[in-house]
Design a protein that fits this description.
By secondary structure, the chain is an alpha+beta fold. The protein is built from 24 helices and 33 strands. A nine-stranded mixed beta sheet has the order 23-26-25-24-33-28-29-30-32, with helices on both faces. Strands 6-8-7-9-11-10 form a six-stranded antiparallel beta sheet, with helices on one face. Strand 12 and strand 13 form a beta hairpin. Helix 13 runs antiparallel to helix 14, helix 14 runs antiparallel to helix 16 and helix 18 crosses helix 19.
Length: about 850
């Protein structure tokens, strides 16, 4: 059965069937207006609209599969629109069985359940036996003590057991229809509609703190711009979640019902298909049923993205609802938003945790089944499949990616402040602390990891993919619709991503219970770090403007010098032995300007790099002697373990200079790894060299990791796949399955940098590391090995809080691996050549 092909050919539309009597009937009404009659006989359901409804100027079809007509709609053998629609008003699974038990009914007898509980149902409908009326409206107080007693009776008795009014609400969770006024909870009586729905914590041991979960995620959704009802939490002392009903219109004098249907009712599906028929194609079919198709596309895409980023695999079709009136169908506010991934993390499943390796989406999104495999381009393509343009889908996705991690942290901190009022209570304090731990896992593990999977890897693709798909949202001050991402925008986003990358594997860390407390402490520290990074990113434009003004001054001074007869630019015009390029991309409206500052003499490798980097601040203001003396002092503390006589390539020196000058590292420590020379050079966040040393790299020549190699045991990795991937990586310390806490360089490829391991005798890793021949240093399975002393003294202290790693390629060109650096180097070469030609003149 396909949700995108709704065919009503099998629906029999006659007044009656010969010889068939309908002994069971229910009157269907909205508020005080009769809508029709529901009847059932021999498991065939029939619905007939009333003449009063058909002549009402505001009348509408209850659902697309139940069109307005003056003849009865009767279910057929295979298509059962009447039964499916009304059955979807009832609760599901354990909740249905519990309510059936309370009413002494068979849970499979949906008609009998509707008769018993139809006085207050999901949506607008009231279902009563013929001739029966409800008593006048009224309110019954529901004290906390009584509510607490009902909650304690779960799951053996229904939450609505003992209520004066029998009520039915769709869904699988225990819930109760209530009225909330001025902070007090009441039960509706008679014809009084409810205004809110109340849910306690799940009774399942596998889903703890469901109240805090749903309350937090719904609040986060509101912050992210999704349309959601007002929600709150309270303790009686058991926690309860309260949500305002979107199918109600609340005025000072009365509460009126609004007609609402879920996606299964919209698409003429039985509720049992709520997961099986979930797909992008089904969402596209939903769009076609709504009156505002563009708005529906945008909201469904936002809902889809938000569920992915928060780890919600309960996003089924019955968790989408629609408001219906005579003007058409409109997507309702979102509800039932929560993170199921938390329950599959190491914090709650221990060593057998499914997150992140095998946690599945609610349904495949364009063939992607697992949260871990979801990437930026997949979500953009999903938006296109919904009918959005690529630019619109990218804009919506980027908006959530840029804000969700920060908003989650902010909401978590606000929640912690709110919790202070309850922590002193002995009957609530322990519950609140447990909820806080849950929300910490959600904020710092689930959301951060999904942010990294979807966003950070897209930034990596932007760095290596030229100008392909570098779209950013429409911007009035930039003009145009959909333009390429600028360098500043990429770096601003990366600044936040770098700060949170150290949490990439905290879900796995949580499997070790004795470490969980220290992890939580570390996460609090990371919160501070992320906030600082975000503030730094916000000041990027101001810094860029200042740099541009300085470049204007330098350019003017250079032009003045060029006009002096016989005057040559400082530093000589011959090709220097050591040089680097300083380039700054300031504004999109002007070209990249590049200035080359050559060194005056050949020096040792360590001093050469320090000299080149020091030039970023002194070359335009000091003479050559000062430019040589300053870096010499800085280099004295740099550890140089390179073999005697081994030089550092000009490419490495130029790349280091470009990283510092362009602030590509965003102030974080960085390392340059030259596979061809078997060298690792470590720099602080200030751009100063901290050390250089030989290193061992992957035994196979190549610049890309084989698909799936990260999941293989070392011994199972084929020889030709033992590569060290090239490129720019954001890494940091995190746990591993078999080596404890390691410094991840490329987490997705399981490539780390660690001290020289013992290895096998025939590998002779110690001897290879001491060799002056770089070819001897290709022996690992892909990881980078350095000496234990260099690792402990330089690497560990430098990258304790994460950093950026630049791995030079074996085969790929520099242009392919570092396109922006290559572009600036080419520009620097042009400047040098123009200077040579000018000097010859």
């Amino acid at each position: 059965m396909s949700a995108s092909h709704i065919d009503l050919k099998d629906v029999v539309k006659v007044t009656t069937l010969p010889g068939l009597h309908y002994p069971r009937q229910l009157q269907v009404s909205i508020d005080d207006t009769p809508v029709g009659v529901l009847a059932e006989a021999a498991n065939l359901w029939r619905f007939t609209y009333s003449s009063q409804w058909l002549t009402n100027a505001s009348a509408f079809s209850l659902a697309p599969a139940l069109p307005l007509q003056d003849t009865a709609i009767i279910d057929g053998g295979s298509e059962r629109p009447v039964q499916w629609y009304f059955d979807n008003l009832l609760p599901e699974e354990q909740q249905r069985m519990l309510m059936a038990t309370d009413a002494h009914l068979d849970s499979a007898d949906a008609f009998a359940l509707l008769k018993h509980y139809g006085a207050e149902s999901a949506g607008s409908l009231t279902l009563l036996p013929p001739g029966q009326t409800l008593p006048p409206s009224g309110l019954a107080d529901l004290p906390d003590a009584e509510l607490s007693q009902r909650i304690q009776g779960l799951p053996h008795t229904s939450l609505a057991a003992g209520a004066a009014k029998r009520m039915s609400l769709a869904g699988a969770q225990h819930k109760l229809a209530i009225i909330e006024r001025a902070g007090h909870i009441y039960q509706p009586l008679g014809t009084q509609p409810s205004s809110h729905i109340l849910k306690p914590d799940s009774t399942s041991a596998g889903y703890p703190h469901s109240v805090a979960n749903e309350w937090f995620v719904m609040r986060l959704a509101q912050r992210m711009g999704l349309l959601v009802p007002h929600v709150e939490r309270r303790y009686v002392p058991e926690p309860v979640f309260i949500i305002e009903r979107f199918d109600r219109v609340i005025t000072p004098s009365a509460i009126h019902r609004r007609h609402a249907i879920d996606a299964c009712q919209l698409l003429n599906l039985a509720g049992s298909f709520k997961y099986a028929l979930g797909s992008i194609e089904t969402l596209a079919a939903i769009v076609q049923q709504c009156r505002s198709k563009l708005r529906t596309r945008m909201r469904l895409f936002d809902w889809l993205v938000f569920n992915v980023l928060t780890g919600n695999n309960d996003a089924h079709l019955k968790n989408l609802s629609f408001l219906v009136d005579n003007a058409g169908i409109e997507l309702a506010p979102h509800y039932d938003l929560l993170s199921t991934a938390c329950y599959e993390s190491g914090a709650y499943e221990g060593e057998g945790a499914r997150w992140p390796e095998s946690s599945e989406l609610a349904w495949p999104i364009l063939g992607i089944r697992h949260f871990r495999d979801m990437r930026f381009q997949h979500l953009v393509e999903a938006g296109e499949a919904l009918g959005l343009t690529r630019q619109a889908a990218t804009r919506q996705l980027m908006r959530q990616l840029q804000h969700i991690a920060g908003e989650a942290r902010s909401l978590y901190e606000q929640t912690q402040r709110e919790n202070e009022q309850w922590l002193h209570r002995f009957d609530i304090g322990a519950t609140v602390e447990g909820e806080a731990r849950f929300l910490r896992t959600l904020t710092h593990v689930i959301i951060n990891e999904m942010h990294i999977h979807v966003f950070q890897l897209q930034l990596k693709a932007l760095r290596s993919g030229g100008n392909k798909r570098r779209y950013i949202p429409d911007s009035p001050d930039e003009g145009g619709s959909g333009m390429f991402l600028t360098k500043q925008q990429i770096n601003a986003a990366r600044a936040v991503t770098v700060a949170i990358v150290a949490t990439v594997s905290l879900g796995a860390c949580a499997t070790y219970k004795d470490e969980f407390a220290s992890i939580n402490s570390r996460l609090d520290q990371l919160d501070v770090k992320v906030q600082g990074a975000a503030q730094s990113a916000e000041s990027a434009n101001q810094s860029a403007q200042q740099a541009n003004q300085r470049l204007d001054q330098i350019e003017g001074r250079v032009q003045q010098l060029e006009r002096v007869p016989g005057r040559k630019p400082r530093g000589g015009l011959r090709r220097p032995l050591v040089s680097f390029s300083l380039s700054v991309v300031i504004r999109r409206s002007r070209p990249i300007r590049t200035y080359s500052f050559p060194a005056r003499r050949a020096v040792s490798a360590t001093l050469a790099i320090a000299l080149a980097l020091a030039g970023t601040s002194v070359a335009s203001a000091k003479n050559a002697k000062e430019a040589q003396e300053a870096p010499a002092a800085e280099a004295a503390n740099a550890a140089d373990e390179l073999p005697q006589g081994q030089e550092v390539s000009e490419t490495v020196i130029e790349l280091a200079g470009w990283v510092v000058a362009s602030k590509d590292n965003q102030g974080y420590p960085f390392a340059i790894m030259d596979k061809a020379a078997a060298q690792v050079l470590v720099f602080g966040g200030d751009g100063k060299l901290r050390g250089a040393a030989p290193a061992l790299f992957g035994s196979a020549i190549g610049d890309h990791s084989a698909p799936g190699v990260a999941k293989l045991a070392l011994s199972a990795i084929p020889g030709h796949d033992r590569t060290t991937p090239a490129g720019r990586f954001i890494g940091g310390y995190g746990p591993s399955e078999d080596a404890g806490r390691v410094l991840w360089v490329d987490y997705d490829s399981a490539v780390s940098m660690h001290p020289l391991p013992p290895g096998t005798p025939k590998e002779k890793r110690s001897e290879r590391l001491a060799s002056a021949t770089p070819d001897d240093n290709r022996v690992t399975h892909g990881c980078i090995n350095v000496s234990p002393a260099f690792y402990e003294q330089i690497v560990h202290s430098t990258f304790e809080k994460g950093g950026v790693f630049y791995v030079l390629p074996d085969k790929d060109s520099i242009e392919e691996t570092f396109p922006e650096f290559a572009q600036n180097r080419a520009a620097a070469k042009d400047v040098d050549e123009k200077g040579e030609r000018h000097a010859r003149k």
